[in-house]
Every structure is written in C-alpha cells, then in structure tokens.
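Final report, Chapter 2: Outcomes

The project's central promise was a pipeline that accepts a single protein chain and returns its three-dimensional structure in a standardized token representation, suitable for archiving and comparison. That pipeline is now operational. To close this chapter, we reproduce one record exactly as it appears in the project archive, with the input sequence first and the structure output second.
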Amino acid sequence: MEGVEEEDPLLGIGAFARRSRLSQKALRLYDGQGVLRPDRVDPATGYRYYRESRLADARRIRLLRGLDMPLAAVAEVLAAPGPQAAALVAEYWEQVERRTAAQRELAAYLRIQLTGGEGILDMFDIQQREVPEQLVLTEQRHIRPEELPEWIPAACDRLFAVAQAHGGVFGAPFVVYHGEVNDDSDGPVELCVPVDPARAGGFGAPSRTEPAHREAYTTVTKAQVVYPQILSAYDAVFQWAKEHDETVSAGPREVYFVKWDEVAPGDPACDIAVPIG
C-alpha cells in the first residue's frame, strides 16, 4: 500500500482541482453524477481525495464538456476502452453536426417568414426538366409532419422489396403531396417507386401510371429536408412558378435521388418539384 501511495499519491480536492483545471464545484457535481468519484472521502469531514492518476480522466472530462457533451454521455466515454470511446465521441459529434445543420436551416426559414418571403428565390436555384411517363408502385396514407421521417423510408423498403421481385427499381422514388401536411392537415401523401413499365400488373401492391410532365424543381440538402425548413423550398418553387406565369398541374413532390443514410447534412439529398404547364 505504501508503494502505491508513493507512485500514485492522494491529492486533496483543492490540489486536484488546480491541476485538472476543474473547479471544486464541478468535481462535487461529477461525484454526485457518478462521472468522477473520489478515491477517498474523509468520514469525519467529507473531504474528498483523488489519486494523481485520475488527472487524466479529469482532464478528459474537461475536454468532453468543451463539446457540450451531457454528463451521462461523458460517463459512457470514460468507461469505454480507447477505440470504443473514440467511436462514441465521433457518434456524438455527428449528432451535433446534424442538429446544427438543421438549426441553421430553421433560422433561414424563420428569417424568410419574418420578412414576408423576401429574397427566397435568391436562396434556391430553380430549374426545369421533362419527366417521362412512369409506372409506379404506390403506398398512400394520411399522415402528420412528425411521422414522415419514419414512414417514408419504411414505405420505401416495402415497395423496393416488391419492385426487386418484378425487375427492380426503374428510377428515383418520390413522394407526392395530394394535400398539405402541416399542423392542421394530414395530406394524403403518396410514396411512388418507379418499376419496369413492361411488367404492369401482378405486383401484389397498388400501382398506377404517372403521366409525363414538365416540372420546376430545386435541389435541397439533407438538413433542409427537415420540417418546417423544407417549406421554404416549396415556397420558392411555387413563387417561381407564379412569377413565370406557370400553372401548377399536380401535387408537389419530393424526389429522393440518394440513399438517405449515406449522405451528410450538407449534401444534396432531395429535389422539391411541382409539375407545371
């Protein structure tokens, strides 16, 4: 025991706080939260002591808290072996970046709202394209905004499985909004997966022909797809159509041309489009 004391001496909370650059108040908090327990507590005075070797953990806590990491997550990092701890930090920071990207787009959306839509067309590059006739598998439902992020990929998986059994997928899936989806309205919404037009019938899932049309569209990032930020892209496309005397001929839609889980928040992920003419 004496050898341990010499190699790894106990430090009072004051000395430990100075050397770790954590306040005594913070150390008491971390003790109470089970993040950094003292090695010894004087039963008479309640005074805390820490082994010198614990300074590495204390300094790591300070760095992790510099990332605004919650204490529960900090405790997980400290308890994990090196590679796993590094993975936990990477996962946490990825979540922070997603949240920050979404909040940045939310701020832009609020600015547009508060200025009455001023400058909205400067934020989005509106293009036109011809879309050929398509045979599509469909799934339709009434839905609330908060349900869309879960329903769209799940419905895609269901229809993709059907498509693969009938020649595969023949284009980017898209979601058609036959009615508004907001706090007061629930659509309906229709997910469409293009399939081989030569294989019409016998799918075991609803299908229909999507007519050929011209559409105005703008490409948005993964962060911009989050509700309600996505509404600013819709507003831009509709405003462009109005300013160019174009008639919107069918429900607006989102065209998903990449796999959702393979793109970062700032990467292009979806086209917001409206059929015109």
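Archive annotation: The chain has a mean pLDDT of 91.
This record, like all others produced under the grant, will remain available to the consortium after the project formally closes.
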